[in-house]
Amino acid sequence: MEKGRVIVGQKRFALTIERLCQQLIEQHGAFEDTCLVGIQPRGVFLGDRLHRRLEDLLGGPKVEYGKLDITFYRDDFRTRAKPLSASPTELDFLVEGKKVILVDDVLYTGRTVQAALTALNHYGRPKKVELLALIDRRFNRHLPIQGDYIGMTVDAVDKAFVRVEWKEQSNEDRVLIFADKSEAEG
Hints:
This protein has helices spanning 10-28, 43-58, 111-120, 181-185; strands spanning 5-8, 34-39, 64-68, 99-107, 128-136, 149-153, 161-165, 174-178. It is of the alpha/beta class. The strands form two sheets. A five-stranded parallel β-sheet has the order 3-2-4-5-6, with helices on both faces. A three-stranded antiparallel β-sheet has the order 1-8-7.
């Protein structure tokens, strides 16, 4: 039996993604000089969803979209109990001079974003980088990083764990909160 509590169900989940797409269109128009980059592995689920919906809404030129692996750019990849496995980077364009929207599911300490910024430098020097996250944990940030587009803010105590589930992986789109990470894994 699952111990987590659902804090965002399917309807609100879908509305949140729609709102994020509308905000992106307001800021970036037809995406002529803007691209989306999903952070592997979990940001790619959100990136895929945003990319599909943006192309539907814009109905015009293709929105550039890539998937960036940050495994070996993390500051903790050598200190993990078990080896990390890398995901493929699928970035078939340079970000030189473009506006880049980094996409991740949960913004918590900021370390994932720091690693993504470092990895992104191998694909050129962007004109601007913005961050989109479905969930912003807000508290316990280790680095001075904030999102530009946030689906929902979740204020949780130190050990609480927020997990985003995608219908591509599980049976439905939803966000759960657990008392701690071990409860979420157990």
